[in-house]
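thought: fold this chain, then report.
action: predict
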Amino acid sequence: MNDARARGTGETGPIEWMVFDLGNVVLYQTDGLPSLARRMGAAAAMTPAAFRDAYNAPRRDYDLHSDPVRYTGIRLAVLSNAPVSMGEYVRRQQWARLFDRIVISGEIGLIKPDAAIFAHLLRDLAAPADRVAFTDDLPENIAGAEAAGIRGIVFRGAGPLRSALAALGVPLP
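observation:
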């Protein structure tokens, strides 16, 4: 399996939604900024201040627009196997505002990789499956998404994810 390649229906239409798993994709157990920097591929010698500067450099254009779709060209969502308490915690975080939808398994009584959770996701997004891409670190969850017609990307890091998104024609800043 090529981790940098998105798999799914073979449809070549534009992606309207990018859906992220939380655990080991959006959220990590970290010891702070240096650990986050390494996970994103920064040099081991990069200081927290240098990482923060690099992270914030493209933000000016983003901050000029109130609409994330205008900036990225796609809408963002979360689909995560997590208890209700995690959903409550996530929604209180400032970064959660970047996501138009947050779907938590414990809140809806469905769990990945079952087909029902992907059907629920597509109804919630009001989007056809071939216009949705989903990334998760667990291949069985990607298989579940692909069975629903969603384009799947096994998450193996930011670089391979960027390559897979570019292959799908997703505009990356």
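thought: worth noting. The longest helix spans residues 115-125.
final: tokens above.
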